[in-house]
Design a protein that fits this description.
heterodimer, A: 402 residues, alpha/beta, six-stranded antiparallel β-sheet, six-stranded parallel β-sheet, 10 helices, 19 strands, globular, B: 505 residues, 18 helices, 18 strands, 38% helix
């Protein structure tokens, strides 16, 4: 073994370090630097995740008495040339200005990823009782209406390394929309999975996309539709609710399957109880966003509030605005009512986009929707989309991006 | 409202956070602008299902303990930023596949490290030990240079610090070879190249040995609540010292005064002014947001001459079983197809090197009871992305990467990972391009190779980036990449700004 001898390295090389660098720099061109989009990684990032998408309503298709589909195309005039590609199951967060309010709503894309490449998105909106946004859209949007949307978002997607190859989809009401996208993606060959869809409705006339689903099923043996009607019997349909027995009846026998659930809160509550008896592993049960949290005061854990409404002070980039916030509305909704452009996307406590700092005040955050990062709790950060005031609140909020 | 500040820091990455905290703590009216809705850049966390994932940190060097604080500990402590540090005393396990391969686990602590090396490669102990003696010598030389305010006496350097001069001007491999280290021992130690993104035959020895020494002496540290804890603790210092942080506030332009000094920026369409601007944003992007005639020729040529540093592909897995049930017992495992770092580097996008971490080994309750997380890292450049990659093919591309490395690790270790994946997320240079906004999604700024090494950067610091009122900090700055280097540059740059501002008053 040679004796350690650093002397074989020339120490005078040390004196070359600076001249070598200066030489390298002097030899380089002084040309302008390429823009970010000229790099592949940045180009693809920008295509998949544009800061926002300017769309316009191209066509409106009636689905049921209270449900319409909106075909959206890029609004080049406002700066969007191409639609961002997405995974079936993702949603767009739509920004709406209604009177003095500025608010967002997440709507699942009901079109297929392939259609996005052809320049078309489809959102399907159902009128919700007491809703603001759905009424506004259904009553006001017409061909030509400009729509401000986010990039595609959300994780209610088929992941081949995680999910079973066979998906049992459980849809209720407007929860059908992401499954239309998934069924089409499977038929298009863009997702390699089987989908058995149990679609719960009150009656046949409430069921959307029936013809299309039948067409897909006819041409693609990886997709099957089972309509489950609660209020009336119909030929070829199951009568009742989506129970454990019904899931067992249609789920693949002797094979693992993933359950994807999308529907109203009542359906989640019902179906989750049914699923418990099936003994599925947790990884095989996936829920779409739970949606906005209502009636916090009915929770057993609700501590009670001394008044019906409180003062909410919002600090945003050094500006301060004061407003009233009712105890049964989230801090986000209070800001939206007052026209404050606060950021939001999922409105369910999970995406973290509304991440804001609670400077002072007591709040109630229902445990079931508290999906903050651990360190957020130590430093007083909250997700205003699922945070209710219990007293006067001061909140530091970042501005919504355009 | 007031749009004038003493200091504006652009970008709340690791260095930007420390810079803003240092400025605010010293009484300067400080504004930190961040384009994202969270602080930290890479130093953050993300949630999927019941898991909160660490997105980037493998192990933080130069932390130390309360009793023996190293630079990072001192910076956080000095600022009053609290962190619940957890420590890992195994350096890493290195597995080279194939018949000439090896499977070695190294432990921290200089003597234990040397012992574990001797066990792996009998007869190498003296040459390995010599590395740490060399670090001592280099530190003495650096202390002397610092004492002489960067203008050391040439003769003293030649006579007393010759080994420093040799080390600082050669590659890590040159130095190890000169010390008579057997090839296998050298390859094992050089496993760490992945953390700097440059293979050890062109990586500056001073830089590499300094990093090695930090890991060996202090071990590695991790924050208990992911890197998000680090970033929020620094943000808390800024806010608690009267500074402001504006999130979702992307800077779109740098403003210059008539004399060519930076005097402010534009964010959210508003002009904001400051006496000093500190950029945690890479010079390439800053220059693209500046009027062309304001950029000094040297800086523009330097930007054109540089190569971007490496990025990574990463796979985050939330598992529905424990690490014991999986059969995993290591925090960090490096897996390589070839023992030689150069060949690992050349084959990086095919079959080079990857790292697998299981945070539960260091922080058992870092995921819910009955679960664990795995974190795969594959160093690749943004320019390694396939030419024919399209947005619509991207999900498939990500899943192919994940499938390949999971399968390789399952086979190598005799594990069953795939059936237990409850959550999965895959990142690539595209992801880092999205979140960091760096060219090619580099996470390491500029490549620390050849002429652009640590020593060259530090030696030429005064002649580069000379625009008055503008300083740079972060992985792209003098110290290169890694959390600790970023914290150190943020600290150093902000202290200089504080000093200048105090002198001006």
């Amino acid at each position: 073994m040679p004796k350690p001898n650093l002397r074989s390295l020339r120490k005078m090389d040390f004196l070359k370090v600076v001249p070598t660098r200066k030489q390298k720099i002097s030899e380089a061109a002084a040309k302008p630097l390429p823009p970010l989009r000229s790099y592949k990684a940045n180009e693809i990032a920008a295509a998949l995740h544009p800061q926002c998408q300017h769309l316009k309503v191209e066509e409106i298709v009636g689905r049921t008495a209270d449900m319409k589909s909106y075909i959206l195309t890029p609004d080049a005039e406002s700066g969007t040339e191409k639609l961002a590609y997405f995974s079936a199951g993702q949603y767009l967060s739509i920004t709406l200005t209604i009177g003095d309010s500025v608010l967002t709503r997440p709507y699942s894309l009901s079109s297929s990823p392939k259609e996005a490449l052809e320049g078309r998105y489809m959102l399907t909106v159902k009128r919700t009782e007491g809703g603001i946004a759905s009424h506004y859209i259904l009553d006001q949007w017409h061909a030509g209406t400009k729509v401000l949307a986010s990039a595609p978002l959300g994780e209610f997607t088929y992941e081949p390394l995680r999910d079973a190859k066979h998906i049992v989809g459980l849809a209720g009401g407007s929860g059908i929309t992401p499954f239309r996208s998934l069924a089409k993606a499977i038929a298009d060959g863009d997702e390699d999975a089987d989908l058995t869809l149990l679609y719960g409705c009150r009656c046949e006339s409430d069921a959307a996309f029936q013809e299309e689903f039948l067409q897909i099923a006819a041409s693609c043996d990886k997709f099957r539709l089972v309509s489950v009607l609660s209020d009336e019997p119909a030929e070829g349909c199951e009568k009742g609710f989506i129970t454990a027995d019904l899931i067992k009846k249609y789920a693949p026998a002797g094979e693992e399957y993933s359950v994807f659930i999308c529907g109203p809160q009542a359906m989640y509550d019902f179906v989750d109880k049914e699923l418990a008896s099936l003994g599925l592993r947790r990884k095989f049960i996936r829920h779409e966003l739970f949606g906005e949290y209502h009636n916090p005061s009915k929770d057993a854990a609700y501590p009670g509030a001394a008044a019906e409404e409180f003062e909410l002070t919002v600090r945003m980039c050094g500006e301060e605005t004061k407003m009233r916030c009712k105890i049964d509305e989230t801090l986000l909704v209070a800001m939206e009512r007052n026209g404050i452009p606060a950021p939001s996307r999922c409105r369910s406590g999970s995406c973290g986009w509304c991440h804001s700092r609670l400077i002072s005040g007591n709040v109630y955050i229902p445990a079931s929707v508290d999906e903050r990062r651990m360190a957020d709790l130590d430093y007083g950060y909250v997700h205003p989309c699922c945070t209710f005031p219990l007293g006067d609140v001061v909140l530091d909020v970042p501005p919504a991006k355009p | 409202m007031d749009n004038r500040f003493d200091v504006i820091v652009v970008g709340a990455g690791n260095a930007g956070l420390v810079a803003a905290a240092t400025a605010a703590k010293n009484g300067l009216n400080t504004l930190l602008l961040e384009k994202h809705n969270l602080p930290g850049g890479c130093a953050t966390s993300f949630c999927r299902g019941r898991f909160e994932f660490e997105p980037s940190l493998h192990e933080l060097a130069s932390v130390g303990t309360k009793e023996h604080p190293d630079s990072v500990y001192k910076i956080f402590d000095g600022l009053g930023a609290k962190v619940d540090w957890r420590y890992e005393h195994n350096m890493f396990r290195a597995i080279v596949k194939g018949k000439d391969g090896y499977d070695v686990t190294l432990k921290s602590g200089v003597e234990t490290f040397c012992d574990s090396m001797e066990q792996a490669v009998p007869g190498c102990r003296a040459s390995v030990r010599a590395l740490f003696d060399l670090v001592q010598k280099c530190n003495e030389a650096l202390a002397y240079i610092t004492k002489m305010k960067g203008k050391p006496n040439g003769l003293t350097m030649m006579l007393k610090h010759g080994d420093f001069m040799r080390t600082a001007s050669h590659s890590a491999e040159d130095v190890m070879n000169a010390l008579g280290m057997p090839e296998k021992a050298r390859d094992i130690i050089c496993t760490y190249w992945g953390y700097l993104g440059v293979p050890t035959d062109e990586l500056n020895a001073l830089h590499f040995l300094n990093m090695l020494n930090c890991y060996v002496v202090d071990g590695a540290a991790m924050p208990y609540k992911r890197s998000h804890e680090l970033s929020l603790s620094l943000a808390d210092v800024i806010l608690g010292s009267g500074g402001q942080i504006w999130y979702n506030s992307e800077v779109t332009k740098f403003l210059y005064d008539a004399q060519g000094a930076v005097c402010g920026v534009v964010a959210n369409g508003r002009e904001l002014y400051a006496k000093e601007v500190i950029s945690n944003v890479i010079p390439h992007n800053v220059f693209n947001m500046s009027d062309a005639d304001k950029i000094p020729q040297t800086d523009l040529k330097l930007a054109n001459a540089r190569e971007f540093g490496i990025s990574v592909a990463t796979v985050y897995l939330g598992m529905d079983c424990t690490m014991e049930e999986l059969g995993i017992d290591d925090y960090t495992v490096f897996v390589m197809s070839d023992a030689n770092p150069r060949r690992q580097y050349e084959n990086r996008d095919k079959d080079g090197i990857y790292i697998v971490n299981c945070l539960n080994k260091v922080i058992p309750d870092s995921s819910p009871k009955g679960t664990c997380t795995l974190f795969f890292t594959i160093p690749i450049f943004g320019s390694d992305l396939p030419d024919d990659l399209t947005p619509e093919g991207y999900k498939k591309y990500k899943n192919e990467i994940a499938r390949k490395y999971i399968a390789d690790y399952e086979k190598l270790m005799g594990l069953s990972i795939l059936p237990h994946i409850e959550e999965i997320s895959v990142a690539t240079p595209v992801t880092f391009a999205r979140y960091l906004g760096t060219p090619e999604g580099t996470i390491y700024g500029y490549k620390l190779s050849g002429w652009d090494n640590l020593l060259a950067r530090i030696s030429c610091e005064k002649d580069e980036y000379t625009i008055p009122g503008l300083s740079f900090c972060g992985g792209h700055a003098t110290r290169g990449d890694g959390y600790s280097s970023a914290y150190v540059t943020g600290d150093a740059v902000a202290k200089r700004v504080v000093k200048r501002m105090k002198e001006a008053n």
